[in-house]
Specification:
CATH class: Alpha Beta
Order of helices and strands: EEEHEEHEHEHHHEHEHEHEHH
Largest sheet: 9 strands, parallel
Distance between the termini: 18 Å
Helix content: 25-40%
Number of domains: 1
Shape: globular
Bound molecules: flavin mononucleotide
Radius of gyration: 19 Å
Oligomer: single chain
Number of helices: 11
Number of strands: 11
Strand order of the largest sheet: 3-11-10-9-8-7-6-4-5
């Protein structure tokens, strides 16, 4: 019998990258690093998740010393970080994966007292942008195929964009154009440093994490999608509204999909059927999966075969154990 090809398992050309399927690893901070260095157990973890021609996005990775938030997160601001990431990236490449590094600054969420965007002095902004540029260069030096700017979930970039937390009165606050200025200046620097075909961006206009929400999320999302077109970045990655607490279920990413001209990725609450529908209807080019990948490192294969999925155990999402809940979920036995 001929093998049935499901939409999620069709090939896709993402800029210079040939993907053999559309099932992307969503960025997942698993809090198993030490001193902001990825550890050897991360090599096995990412390698388990890699499939030939599959796209992986790394855990949120701090861009600077003052961007530390969780004690067991990873970083990429020094040459030591570059060296620590190299074997992880190599392991993904050895299995034919394509690996983007998610660049992250937690902003007001940082333990080190980096304040809300309203309190960041205008003269500090160029330093923050330089930190993103440096981190992007380091990611490429570590072997990553590209970077994803973390512009979601109430962290620094999102804090500038959302009007609930940005109370600035300078050119980085107030109207939409001003609130998006920081994100786009970061983008400009990173694109200049490593090239647009290696840069994606994650956005969650509908989210209200860390109390960062917007009075007009649709306008924000569309504005950003259009602004990102000018940089010609390789993908935009939008998080769905429907699984955010307290947000209406009917909010749609379609206007952003229509506005953005390159690869459009969605994430948030997808299963096999919903993912297939998103691809076949043209709603998205790629679907990123988070929790299902945690418990099913061979997720694309399971989707292809319509095999049952292992249930995930939330209690070990963020625990430090290098094996339990990290690399001990069973693979399909065939
Ligand atoms: C354990 C865990 C860690 C996460 N870490 C990150 C992160 O580092 N960066 C990010 O943008 N989103 C992060 N997320 C959100 C996921 O990328 C994804 O958007 C979310 O899990 C919804 O997708 P899902 O329904 O497929 O799990 C995390 C989610 C989980 C469960």
């Amino acid at each position: 019998m001929a093998k049935q090809i499901i939409p999620l398992m069709t090939r896709y050309q993402m800029g210079p990258f040939t993907l053999s399927h559309r099932v992307v690893l969503a960025p997942l901070g698993r809090q198993r690093s030490y001193d902001y260095m990825p550890q050897p157990h991360a090599i096995l973890y990412y390698s388990q998740i890699t499939s030939p021609g599959g796209l992986l996005i790394s855990e949120a990775t701090a861009i600077s010393e003052n961007g530390k938030a969780y004690t067991r997160a990873s970083g990429i601001w020094t040459k030591e970080h570059v060296e620590a990431w190299k074997p992880v990236v190599s392991a993904v490449h050895d299995k034919g994966g394509i690996f983007f590094c998610q660049l992250w600054h937690p902003g007001r969420f940082s333990h080190f007292g980096v304040p809300v965007p309203s309190a960041i002095k205008t003269e500090e902004i160029p330093h923050l942008i330089a930190d993103y540029r440096n981190a992007a260069r380091n990611a490429i030096d570590a072997g990553f195929d590209g970077v994803e700017i973390h512009g979601a979930h109430g962290f620094l970039v999102d804090q500038f964009m959302k009007d609930s937390v940005n109370h600035r009165t300078d050119r980085y606050g107030g109207n939409l154009e001003n609130r998006c200025r920081f994100a786009l200046e970061v983008m400009e620097a990173v694109v200049d440093e490593i090239g647009a075909e290696r840069v994606g961006m994650r956005l969650s206009p509908f989210s209200n994490f860390l109390d960062a929400y917007d009075s007009n999320p649709e306008a924000l999302g569309v504005y950003m999608a259009e602004a990102l077109n000018k940089f010609n970045i390789v993908y935009a990655h939008f998080v769905e509204a429907r699984h955010e607490k307290g947000v209406a279920m009917d909010r749609s990413l379609l206007p952003m999909r229509k506005a953005f001209k390159n690869t459009f990725m969605v994430a948030g609450g997808y299963d096999r059927d919903e993912g297939n529908k998103a691809i076949s209807s043209g709603k998205a080019d790629l679907v990123a999966y988070g929790r299902f990948f945690i418990s099913n490192p061979d997720l694309p294969k399971r989707f292809q075969l319509n095999a049952p999925l292992n249930a995930y155990d939330r209690s070990t999402f963020y625990t430090p154990d290098p094996v339990v809940g990290y690399t001990d979920y069973p693979f399909l036995e065939l």
